[in-house]
Amino acid sequence: MRKNISSLLQKGNLTPKQRYLLIIQNDIARAKTGKEILTEADIKGLEGWHAQTNEEAREWNKYNEGWKLSGRAGIDAEFIYAETKAEHFRRNIISHELIIYPIYREYLNALQALKKIKVVDINEAIAITKKQREQKLKDGGDFEYSVFELAIELLGDKDRAKLEEATDEDAIFDETRLDHETKIADLLAGKNELTKEAKEKLAELVGKHSTNNYTKYSQLYFDYASIPLYEIAERFLKDKGVKFSGDKDKVIGRAGRVAMKMAGRDILDRAEKLKEILENYARDNKTTIEAIIKEACLKWLDEDLLKKHPPLVLREKELFNKWLKTKAEARATLQKLIDKGELKAEETGRDKTITGESLYRFKGDFKFIKEFKERVDRYDANAGLIYADDDPEQKGDNLDQELLIAEKDKDGKPAVISIFNMSLREIEGATKLFYLKEVEKNGETYLEFKSEEVEKAFKDTRQSLINGYAKLLAFSEIFKKLDKIYETDLTSFTITPKIKQVSEFIDLHNDTLDYALGNTTGRLDFGLYRKPLKTREDLFINKDRIAPDLNATKEYSKKFYEILGDEYKF
Asked: Which of 246, 249, 361, 453 has its Cβ near the most Cβ atoms within 10 Å?
């Protein structure tokens, strides 16, 4: 390029536009890199040139005026960017509260849990503890679960460890897993494959399992034996072409309780989302989740389900048979103790219960009975027990509350001057927010601003980001045209960095709002699960829907056209 410029300058046949563009390109190069593309002699030669005709003078002045106007346009764009930036940082205090809101909700959960602690005097504490103990003895032990517990105990450390490993530890916590494994084994009837009739029965069992309401969490989160309901649901949605955003995060082949411990609450939330999608699909197609899971399970059983997720009887046949044998021994042992009168059993409908009194008096060395005795003697704040219905004085009061033995006032509340009450007040004062609040309406929880002034300030800032972005896009359109005329890259040098910065402000706005609303379910549950938040109106910013604000640059476009003519079109 250096050689070509010198050659052109020596010939002296450059047009006024070529001369002017060389000067401009040299200025741009110096501003970008600190280095010039022209020598000092070149610059003097170009700037010292005098037009020989009126036409040459008009051409020179045309591009000179256009360039001067571009400078003014650049200054206006700079002002727009500065104002937008100032508005963005002006709302930092509100943004700070949005960012900490998930943590704030954790504090609310903890504070609410503290307030649920039952304040009692010493006599009330003794009475409640006694009442809980009586209730535990009254409840006794379910016979079938006692068989399970004794079987686990009789299995021995080595085989118990193998069983834990073979079932992701789930069998040690819940007899349901091994009960499901047994049902599959019965359907296999000693074979390696299911018959058509057996597949139908198994698919029906899995379908029913998907709508079991014994847990507040989505049942799709839990497996049936080794069969993951979560994955069955996902396969169904994929086959039907229904998009599920949780695909990349799915948990496959893990027992529900273990996955809860390993993965945390966010996985549960995605299972709830999957359930919601299936419910919508079921409603729109006049079917049920149970029917959906049954259909999808049956289809997968015809393919390779039991090969991908084999039941225990196919993976560990010897261990499974040993478990069945041990369970039979445990059942026989307990029945013998009942027959001999060392334990007492009562029929309660279709179930059989070993009485608590007989378990507590039993002199044997069974671990599960020792644990029952310890549980009876221990006050359990999470026992989930209630007072007997025949006690009108206490009916409906929880026996599973944590108790605080403290001084009370005449109304039965913690005394004003007490460590507990004063501490609660301090915590409440420290966790109050200035700008945000939660409002419950029609079963939904909304995040709102405490005052109209704060709401207006937030919305004004949001709108300023939209307006600033739209105006800068319009200036970008102008500078793209000037780039072609002046054969340089003014846009990337002057406007693009500003657009990029405002774009990042918008992303931060959206991320902050999304974090406040979408990640506030809470790690501390205490049985006080908080719903995800919503806003009454859309406060996010969709950049893709922001068009250049051509009204903001209308006068500039008009002036550029007056100066540059048809070279500049708008």
From this structure: 246
Q: Provide the residue count of the chain.
A: 570
Whose CA is closest to 108, among 408, 447, 453? 447
Residue with tokens 């040690």: 172
Q: Rounded CA gap, 496 and 475, in Å? A: 10
Give just the sign of the alpha carbon dihedral 215, 220, 221, 222: positive
**Nearest-angstrom CA–CA distance, 181 and 505:** 55
Q: Which residues contact 33 (CB under 8 A, 6 or more apart)?
A: none
122 close to 404: Cβ distance less than 8 angstroms: no
Residue given tokens 């009475």 in the structure block: 127
User: Which residues of 209-279 form beta strands (DSSP E)?
Assistant: 223-224, 227-228
Give the DSSP H/E element, type plus range, for residue 404: strand 403-405
DSSP 58-104: HHHHHHHHHHHHHHHHHHHHHHHHHHHHHHHHHTHHHHHHHHHHHHH
| Percent helix, percent strand, percent coil in the chain, to nearest 5 | 65, 5, 30
Which amino acid belongs to residue 179? D
Closest CA to 225 of 271, 288, 167: 167
Pairing of strands 351-354, 403-405: unpaired
Strand partners, 348: 351
Cα–Cα distance measured from residue 534 to residue 548, given in angstroms and rounded to the nearest whole number: 30
Share of the chain above pLDDT 90, in %: 39
Long-range pairs of 152-158 with CB within 8 A, sequence gap ≥ 24: 153/330, 153/366, 153/367, 153/368, 154/326, 154/329, 154/330, 154/333, 155/322, 155/323, 155/326
Q: At what angle do helices 317-340 and 175-188 cross, to 10 degrees?
A: 120
Rounded Cα distance between 51 and 54, Å, is 7
CA distance 480 to 474: 10
Residue 30 makes CB contacts below 8 A (sequence gap 6+) with 36
Q: Residue 226 contacts by C-beta under 8 Å, 6 or more apart in sequence?
A: 167, 181, 253, 309, 310, 311, 312, 315
Token couple for 567: 């070279």
Tell which residue, 178, 174, 142, 175, has the closest CA to residue 322.
178
432 — pLDDT class (breaks 50, 70, 90):
confident
Q: How far apart are CA 526 and CA 109, in angstroms?
A: 8
7: number of CA atoms within 13 Å, CB side? 4
Whether 159 and 322 have beta carbons less than 8 Å apart is answered as: yes
- Angle, nearest 10°, between helix axes 496-518 and 452-486? 150
Query: With 70 as the cut, is the pLDDT of residue 217 above it?
Result: no
DSSP 3-state of 279: helix
Q: Are 310 and 316 in contact (CB under 8 A)?
A: no
| pTM above threshold 0.90 | no
Chain segment 360-376, per-residue pLDDT in tens: 999 988 999 999 999 99
In sequence order, which residues have a C-beta less than 8 Å from that of residue 128 and are 6 or more positions away?
A: 118, 120, 399, 403
What's the DSSP call for residue 414?
Answer: B
